[in-house]
Specification:
mainly alpha; 75% helix; 114 residues; two-stranded antiparallel sheet
Length: 114
């Protein structure tokens, strides 16, 4: 249940960011949900592979290269999801940073008291 809520909150963040960022477009909320699912899958499958392959560059840049990896994941999602478009690498970088900020704020509302 918590995963579904996180995907819906990510979809809301994608829609909100597409309204404010000029290079990001989403056709509708259903497309945003698909984008959220694809991003979750890419972060689960592709991101660890990219982190391992680029570990020397990540160490040299003190972890800043992870922002580029997140932008690459956004661009891969742009490729796979019709109705979602990102105009370039810099917009994808800004979108990924802002999406991470929105997700951390929204997910902090879901904290479980264990």
């Amino acid at each position: 249940m918590n995963t579904i809520i996180k995907i819906l909150l990510t979809a809301v963040a994608v829609v909100v960011l597409s309204k404010f960022l000029p290079g990001v477009a989403v056709d509708g909320f259903v497309t945003a949900i698909i984008v959220a699912v694809v991003l979750a899958l890419l972060k689960f499958i592709v991101r660890p592979i990219l982190v391992i392959l680029t570990l020397p560059v990540t160490i040299v840049t003190f972890g800043l290269f992870l922002f580029i990896i997140n932008a690459i994941i956004i661009l891969i999602a742009d490729y796979f999801v019709g109705g979602f478009s990102v105009s370039g690498v810099w917009i994808a970088l800004l979108f990924s940073i802002l999406l991470s900020i929105f997700q951390s704020i929204l997910f902090s509302l879901l904290k479980d008291d264990k």
